[in-house]
Write a structure and sequence with these properties.
By secondary structure, the chain is of the alpha/beta class. It contains ten helices and eleven strands. The protein has a six-stranded mixed sheet with strand order 10-9-6-7-8-11, sandwiched between helices. The chain has a five-stranded mixed sheet with strand order 3-2-1-4-5, sandwiched between helices. Strand 7 and strand 8 form a beta hairpin. The radius of gyration is 20 Å and the shape is globular. The two termini are 39 Å apart. The structure holds 5'-O-[(R)-(carboxyoxy)(hydroxy)phosphoryl]adenosine and zinc ion.
Length: 344
């Protein structure tokens, strides 16, 4: 089956063709990050307008790289949430129009589940496992009994992890997206020079909080009680040490919670996904810590938002449900996700 996957939930306009759920024939992405740089984060109205401008050409590029035409497609998979309403609508309506005119089935995909599928593609499954989603909009720990059966263990109570990277980068005058900029700067720094405390939530061992840490970085750079607009009080040479200490604190927090979940539920493997998993320091720290467990990161090009993870999971869902979604399929802006059951 040739599946077209469409992804427009945030600031990446993406489309891909995947054969039978795992064979990636093309993975076309137009990144809007330059457009959002001056705002230090995603500006929703600009994001949806840019999707409208670029989506058709991104889809055409995906088809031509796969050496296919519209008439070869068997299924259209589209991320219908969670994410930005206006952005999702562009992808969803385009997917509906294509499915209707080509007379092929349509399937709606949960963007967060797709991030995890990115590290399962072409891998053997070892369940029960831990799903770890670390992206600009989402931070989740999930206990996965099967690829489509997950229980939410924990999430963030404030900022998402990637959002924390983006905000701290902005405090340090680094460009958006902040994750790659912090990673590069941190490589030159001493992670033990500053002590930042990780966020904890009472009685919720698997939940995250990053806003206190972000404020601590803000006050370190701008002075106690200082705001983002204030001038910095530190020597610019300190920035690399602050970036390294921040990054280490955040990743150690994630790793400690992963360890707790693996031990408590006797999990056999970990599947990670989302833009933050691109970070090489995280990959190294995780691989060194969990030598007793099988660890799967997304392969190259599948960590950040992309259409291949949507097409791949679309195929799996379509095959297992033996049913497509109606053209009345709606946007699902929010979490909790329909298929994830809260497990308190
Ligand atoms: O998964 P993604 O493309 O979009 C969402 O679903 O949100 O993730 C984007 C996020 C941004 O916040 C970006 O700063 C972060 O992933 N990111 C990184 C790295 N590359 C991207 N964070 C840390 N280290 C990186 N190398
Ligand atoms: Zn994402």
């Amino acid at each position: 089956m040739f599946v077209l996957g469409i992804e427009t939930t945030c600031d990446e306009t993406a489309a891909a063709i995947v054969k039978d759920g795992h064979d990636i024939l093309s993975n076309s992405i137009f990144s809007q990050s330059e457009l959002h740089q001056k705002y230090g984060g995603v500006f929703p109205e600009i994001a949806s307008r840019s999707h409208t401008t670029h989506l058709i050409s991104v889809i055409e590029r995906a088809l031509s790289e796969a050496k296919l035409s519209f008439s070869d497609l068997d299924l259209i998979a589209v991320a219908n949430g969670p994410g930005l309403m206006g952005s999702i609508l562009v992808g969803l309506n385009t997917a509906k129009a294509l499915a209707y005119s080509l007379k092929i089935p349509l399937i709606g995909i949960n963007h967060v589940e797709a991030h995890l599928y990115a590290s399962m593609m072409n891998q053997k499954s070892y369940f029960p496992s831990l799903g770890v989603v670390l992206s600009g909009g989402h931070t989740f720990l999930l206990k996965m009994d099967e690829a489509h059966r997950s229980h939410l263990l924990g999430t963030t109570q404030d900022d998402a992890i990637g959002e924390a990277f983006d905000k701290v980068a902005s405090i340090l005058d680094l460009p958006y997206p902040g994750g790659p900029a912090i990673e590069t700067l941190a490589q030159l720094g001493d992670a033990s020079k500053y002590f930042f405390k990780k966020g904890t939530i009472k009685d919720r061992p698997f939940d995250f909080s990053f806003s206190g840490l972000k404020t601590k970085v803000l006050y370190t750079v701008k002075g106690q009680g200082g705001s983002k607009k204030k001038t910095s009080i530190i020597d610019p040479k300190e920035k690399k040490h602050i970036a390294a200490s921040f990054q280490k604190t955040v990743f150690q927090d994630v790793i400690d919670k992963m360890r707790k979940a693996i031990d408590k539920y006797r999990l056999k493997s970990v599947y990670l996904g989302g833009g933050v998993t691109e970070n090489q320091t995280l990959q190294k720290m995780v691989s060194q810590t969990f030598s007793d467990c099988k660890i799967f990161f997304p392969s190259k090009g599948l960590s950040l938002d992309n259409g291949a993870m949507i097409a791949g999971l679309g195929y799996q869902k379509f095959i297992s449900k033996r049913q497509s979604d109606p053209l009345s399929l709606d946007v699902k802006v929010r979490i909790p996700l329909e298929d994830l059951h809260q497990n308190q």
